[in-house]
Amino acid sequence: MSMPPGMDNGENTSNAELAGSEGEILTRFCRLLSDTGSRIEIIPTASSIPEKAGSRYTEAFSSLGFNNAAVMDIRTREQAQTPDMVQRVREAEGFLFTGGDQLRLTTILGGTDFLDILAERYLWEPVVIAGTSAGAMAMSDTMIYQGSSQEALKKGEVKFCSGFGLLPKVIIDTHFVKRGRIGRLFQAVASNPGCLGIGLGEDTGLLITQGDILEAIGSGLIIVVDGSTIRYTNMALISEGELISIENLSVHVMVQGDSLLLSRKKFTPAKIQ
Q: Which of 3.40.190.10, 3.20.20.100, 3.30.70.3400, 3.40.50.880 would CATH assign to domain 2-266?
């Protein structure tokens, strides 16, 4: 079971930019597949431009020698449960969810046969599942769907809902460094201290194997926020819109090659050559 949930780029990236910024992470994705004939399904449901998002990734996979990539153009809950889509999700070895609006992903796919089968296969079969931007944020059980970076440490500013649930006790945020979203993740973790907050910077991926081993890949940073160490927060005492106080929040910064054992929250630095 392997999942790299985070190739952090927006949905308007051009083909040329895709090759430069995401090539390394997509190559790693492909290496996890059994061979170049492996079936890859691209799901652009989150995107407002699904045709463009889908074709961009089919071209990218083709450039890596994987020509058996197709687009699952799912725009309604009814489409997600058609026999054709159900059969395709049963047969593919790799799945890539594109960027866009993560709430579109969860409202269209949540509770469908499509997602139920994918989750079952993730648990018991060697499938590879990836998400970029919104596609990455939807992987966890608790998902951020709204929240201003500037006002993120005011109670109620960050909004949550249920994600796909493939990654329990994790909350993922993306475009993390460029858009200054550290406050969003602080509030998310203070509200859900049993969850590990993961902030993906641009040009960065997180490879998750066996549902437990997290490895940073790509050229950027990953910020990990651990709420289990919190000694005090005023979250339950203040009203909506008031500022949040948090004592003893733990933060880790990961770069390429660093790893984290999710079950034990044990950090292991990259081996220095």
A: 3.40.50.880
